[in-house]
Amino acid sequence: MVKIGGNIIDDEQLLSSFLKKFAAISDKKILIHGGGKLATRMAEKMGVSQQMIDGRRITDAETLKIVTMVYAGYINKNIVAQLQSVQCNALGITGADGNSILSHKREKGNIDYGFAGDIDRVDVSWFTQQLLSGQTLVVAPLTHDAKGQLLNTNADTIAQEIGKALSSLFHVVLIYSFEKPGVLQDVENENTVIRKLHVGYYQELKETEKIFAGMIPKLDNAFKAIEAGVEKVIIGKAEELDMLISGNAGTTISHE
Amino acid sequence: MVKIGGNIIDDEQLLSSFLKKFAAISDKKILIHGGGKLATRMAEKMGVSQQMIDGRRITDAETLKIVTMVYAGYINKNIVAQLQSVQCNALGITGADGNSILSHKREKGNIDYGFAGDIDRVDVSWFTQQLLSGQTLVVAPLTHDAKGQLLNTNADTIAQEIGKALSSLFHVVLIYSFEKPGVLQDVENENTVIRKLHVGYYQELKETEKIFAGMIPKLDNAFKAIEAGVEKVIIGKAEELDMLISGNAGTTISHE
């Protein structure tokens, strides 16, 4: 499973070369994509003002309409068509399709995120059936509440939840595409990639404050996925996908 | 199989009540939807001028982007989410998904239609597999050329081609949603619905000019579908879906 974000999606050439590498993976595979800048540009063009709190988009009704068009329409279908052109039989979905990912609207706390979904259930048998029929799934970051409402859902979280759910049946490797070549010891120096990370070493790095604070939520989530059964989480540049998989680049997070 | 167009899609209440009736059909089913006015409104908002020739949209690159967003994103996923809310397990697709409908870019003749697709092949086994797994397919009017290009494709034609292809394995009934209650003998009088139409009677009506000229291409296509193995084509108002199916409304076109 590979999750890609805006830095790949927004760059046509980077995306095309990434998709070729992704198509070449011979194992069963799932691609989860985020949104990128196109949704923001579309909102500007349509005069819908975007509210961001702590880097998260607040999804009001008009914004939900835009992300449904951009994520599930434009980005998802263009990725599918491109994968088909390199002999990768892709099926593009949201969590509403096949009732594959059920969520509920996030409760209003201090912040009202609007139409944002927190995941309740991933349908393992649905994913398994589609994968076993030889298809590659391309997942847009939208889920549904089974009451007719689509909900904007964080792509990192979708990747993690699908990974955890499928780990009961498959050996799951979860790859997070990242702007940096991996988890860095010194955030200013790309040559300080931590190549292997397991629970003990991670605790040590946290205690001695040798890890960039901004990475901690992401890494905590990665370790939760490992505890839930995911075999490996790999963090690194999507451009180096083949090397990430072979273990020759990025940060590999595992039990041991 | 039911094809719906703009008159249903553009009216939230009509669409919602139609989808409930559609969900209640117990047989395996496919919904093919057109575009509606939303794509035109989006194009206006985004300052993309729309060229229409003989009622057909010319699909330039910017227009393709818009219809991909609106048809495959907004309309398709909202229909899927609504069907899920009435216990109909829907999967929304374009012809690129699962490589289900292959087409080629229409050759430039007197008119250059741009990114418009003419269908080459419907993957019967793909459709069969998805239907047999208990899913209802919701098809947006886009196909692909297997070279990475999405193509805008007429929804009536998609419905017809899927119907013809599936008729080798299933008894296919093809329902075309229409503004009028059926094929009318007198286009000004909605009480003149022709209830049953077969080849002989159709020829007679054509020869005696007792049929509205504008209906002839649609009916010629319906008879082609019948010749290719489709059991019945029914034309009528989507609001009367249950009555169309039971044979108590609309025009039913068949061999005999």
Polypeptide structure, described:
The structure is a homodimer of 256-residue chains. By secondary structure, chain A is α/β, with parallel strands linked by helices. Chain A has a domain at 34-157: 3-Layer(aba) Sandwich (Carbamate kinase). Helices cover 38% and strands 20% of the residues of chain A. Chain A is built from nine helices and 14 strands. The first copy, chain A, has helices at residues 6-9, 12-23, 38-45, 61-85, 124-132, 155-166, 199-207, 216-227, 241-246, and strands spanning 2-4, 30-33, 52-53, 56-57, 90-93, 101-105, 117-122, 136-139, 142-144, 150-152, 173-177, 196-197, 232-236, 251-253. In chain A, the strands form four sheets. In chain A, strands 5-8-2-1-11-13-14-12 form an eight-stranded mixed beta sheet, with helices on both faces. In chain A, strand 9 and strand 10 form a beta hairpin. In chain A, helix 3 (38-45) packs across helix 4 (61-85) and helix 6 (155-166) runs parallel beside helix 8. Chain A is globular and about 45 Å long. The model of chain A has no long low-confidence stretch (mean pLDDT 94).
